[in-house]
Write a structure and sequence with these properties.
Distance between the termini: 72 Å
Pfam family, one: Transpeptidase
Radius of gyration: 35 Å
Helix content: 25-40%
Protein name: Penicillin-binding protein
Number of strands: 32
Domain PASTA: 656-714
Shape: globular
Subcellular location: Membrane
Keywords: Carboxypeptidase, Hydrolase, Membrane, Protease, Transmembrane, Transmembrane helix
Length: 714
């Protein structure tokens, strides 16, 4: 016991001694900084005088020098935003001695007139001469607009600017401009810079401003007429440190395809705005985030981030949450529980609840309530199972993460508004309107995070848009995916609602977006817009949220189209006709691009070619046949395939590779297959070695529209 006490006392003394040592080191460092400042001010010289003496005669002071702002990168390391240096060209007319000045002023004026073209040579010379003899003016800018770095290097050879020539007086005032190579794509997501402060004010630029801005330097500047500050000398007291680089999860291939599909539908429907988010199910990585607002006839731009801050009544996409609460509470079999929705209209208190389908759905199962998006059906189920348990229903919504922000590492997310019974706006029928997506406010990202949890077998994942923060190539901060360790509901409930979401696409309101290549699961949502406190007929907020491929979900996606306009039937303004097709177009393009989620289609290769041993250019095959004493291939040009039959005899078949979108590649070498497909505009990926035994796109017409093909070699 005594030894333990002595050991503890020794550890305590060691910690105290270390703290004292650190304190003394900090004190010594502070003294050194103070001494450095005194030395700079009173002992370091400039033009034969100390800075203090020079400052008394001139308006000199230490000022901050801006640092180079960090870069923003996409997931494939392509550049999304960077800072490029630009320079204002200035001239201190009184620096050069008289001999040099008058010997070279004509040359300078001629160069200015020839290159800047803002004045004549005589005009430039006259203005410079006026400043030279003026008692109150000395510094002027020679060009109204800034120049590039390459132009600056060329100017450094001019008289008054070249260091290896006498004279001096030429100055470059450095500024940094933000450049976005992919602009206007994802403009609102990447963000912008305030031109006055140089700070980020929206998007990623604002959210990670501290990391991106770097540390400014300190140097002597001279304040001249007009409030301009010009650098004095080339050396800085404290060098600026460049900002950190931000590596995002965005994929600009997906972003481009998303914006094209969204813009096309917005133009078609003359809608007010639209938003699409694509997220990776397992990690929460946002691969694309598009937000387009109508700015005039046929003109859409990124001016507001609806994905993060665009709150609205979600409408029928929220029925998924209600159905999950019902399943968790009752453990019912949704294919056995029946609901009579009548003729499509039901009087509820002082309101009439209607289904979108005229004439109603009649008696349907609970599963069909979700598949057909029956408002009456969901309200009746709520009356049956939650009439006396509103708090229990609200508790389920909390369990599903629907009453809180997602916590994405990006400024601007608007919290959801899910009322509870303490709210002044709560009424006896609030729960029933909430059940089908009214009397609440949610952003597209919050809705998507919920659907993503369903796709991820019940495990909620925080959306993320930044993966790493780096200092040059050194990773300073790695942001890992955040996945809740406890599922939002039981596995049985997840299994049931997944089946229902697939039913929405297979047989429900979104059956027209069904794909033959892969399964989509999702839900439509059409909500009347709340205008001046009234839900207005004909003004709709449409959405489709879901995931794909449904059997092994890799991507979740939500599409929002606000206030679509149509002169046709009512259904043409509903989500199934507006938002769902955009989801399908985006999903099709991603499926075509991401080979990893494509299903092998070996069984689509014609049976007659399953025994193919060789295939290729006829001329090459005949050379091989001759060497091996085999029957030669027919013809002298084109392509052919060989198979063996009857005790090793060779059978040749000509192979048509020109008239088909996707030719039969089985039996070909990688060289021949690559040549054929790349000449047809396809991107070829492969695995294995040898000859082609499988191809991800079947021979024949390219129904998928994919321009990427995976070849399996053996």
């Amino acid at each position: 016991m005594r030894n333990e006490v002595e050991s503890g006392q020794n550890n305590k003394k060691a910690l105290i001694n270390r703290a004292r040592l650190v304190g003394w080191l900090l004190f010594v460092l502070a003294i050194m900084v103070f001494v450095k400042l005194i030395r700079v001010q009173y002992y370091d010289t400039f033009k034969g005088k100390t800075w203090a003496e020079y400052s008394e005669k001139n308006d000199l002071k230490l000022d901050t020098i801006p640092a180079m702002r960090g870069n923003i990168y996409a997931s494939d390391n392509s550049l999304l935003a960077t800072s490029l240096p630009y320079y204002y060209v200035g001239f201190d007319t009184k620096v050069a001695d008289s001999s040099y000045f008058y010997d070279h002023i004509d040359e300078l004026a001629s160069l200015l007139a020839k290159n800047f073209k803002e004045n004549t040579a005589e005009g430039y010379k006259s203005k410079i001469m006026r400043y030279r003899v003026s008692k109150s003016k000395r510094y002027l800018r020679l060009k109204s607009k800034e120049i590039t770095h390459l132009e600056r290097e060329r100017l450094k050879k001019w008289p008054f600017f070249a260091k290896n020539r006498k004279g001096g007086g030429g100055k470059f005032e450095t500024i940094y401009k933000r450049y976005k190579p992919f602009s206007p794509m994802a403009d609102r997501t990447i963000g912008g810079i305030d031109p006055k402060s140089g700070r980020g004010y929206i998007g990623l630029e604002a959210s990670f401003d501290k990391q991106l801005e770097g540390r400014p330097g300190i140097g002597w500047v001279e304040k001249v007429e007009g409030g301009l500050k010009i650098p004095v000398g080339d050396a800085l007291n404290v060098q600026p440190a460049a900002g950190r680089d931000i590596y995002t999860t965005l994929d600009m291939n997906y972003q481009e395809r998303t914006e094209i599909a969204l813009r096309r539908k917005l133009l078609e429907m003359d809608a007010d705005f639209g938003s699409v988010i694509i997220m990776e199910v397992a990690t929460g990585e946002i691969k694309a985030m598009a937000n387009l607002t109508k700015r005039g006839p046929g003109k859409y731009e990124e001016v507001f981030n609806y994905a993060l801050a665009g709150s609205n009544d979600p409408g029928s996409t929220f029925k998924l949450a209600t159905m999950m609460a019902l399943l968790e509470e009752t453990q019912m079999d949704p294919d056995q529980v029946m609901v009579n929705t009548g003729n499509g209209a039901m009087k509820f208190r002082n309101h009439v609840i209607r289904d979108a389908h005229r004439g109603g759905f009649g008696t349907i199962t609970a599963s069909q309530v979700l598949e057909k998006s029956s408002n009456i059906g969901i309200v009746q189920l709520m009356q049956r199972y939650f009439a006396n348990k509103p708090d229990k229903y609200l508790q389920y919504l909390k369990q599903f993460h629907l009453n809180q922000p997602t916590g994405i590492h990006m400024k601007g997310e608007k919290p959801p508004l899910i009322r509870d019974r303490k709210s002044k706006q709560w009424s006896s029928y609030s729960m029933y309107f909430m059940a089908h997506g009214y009397e609440m406010q949610m952003t597209p990202l919050q809705t998507l995070a919920f659907y993503n949890a369903v796709a991820n077998n019940g495990y909620w994942v925080r959306p993320m848009i930044v993966r790493e923060i780096r200092n040059a190539e050194e990773i300073e901060d790695k942001i890992p995916p955040y996945v809740e360790d406890k599922p939002i509901c039981s596995p049985e409930t997840i299994r049931k609602v997944k089946k229902m979401l697939e039913g929405v696409v297979n047989a429900g309101l979104a059956k027209h977006i069904k794909s033959d290549l892969y399964q989509i699961a999702g839900k439509t949502g059409t909500a009347r817009k709340l205008i001046d406190g009234v839900y207005t007929e004909g003004k709709n907020y449409t959405s489709f949220a879901g995931y794909f491929p449904a059997d092994k979900p890799k991507y979740s996606c939500i599409v929002i189209i606000d206030n679509p306009k149509s002169t046709g039937a009512d259904y043409t303004r509903y989500a199934g006709s507006v938002a769902a097709p955009v989801f399908k177009e985006v999903a099709d393009r991603i499926y075509a691009y991401d080979v990893a989620i494509q299903k092998p289609v070996r069984d689509s290769v014609p049976e007659k070619s399953e025994d193919v041993k060789w295939a290729g250019i006829t001329e090459d095959l005949n050379v091989i046949s001759k060497s091996l004493n085999m029957t030669p291939a027919p013809g002298e040009s084109g392509y052919a395939a060989a198979s063996l039959y009857k005790k090793g005899k060779t059978k040749w078949n000509p192979r048509d590779v020109e008239s088909r979108d996707v030719p039969d590649l089985q039996g070909m070498s990688m060289r021949d297959a690559l040549y054929l497909m790349e000449n047809k505009g396809f991107r070829v990926t492969f695995k294995g070695s040898g000859k082609v035994v499988e191809q991800s796109l079947p021979p024949g017409a390219n129904k998928s529209g994919s321009k990427t093909i995976l070849l399996t070699l053996q």
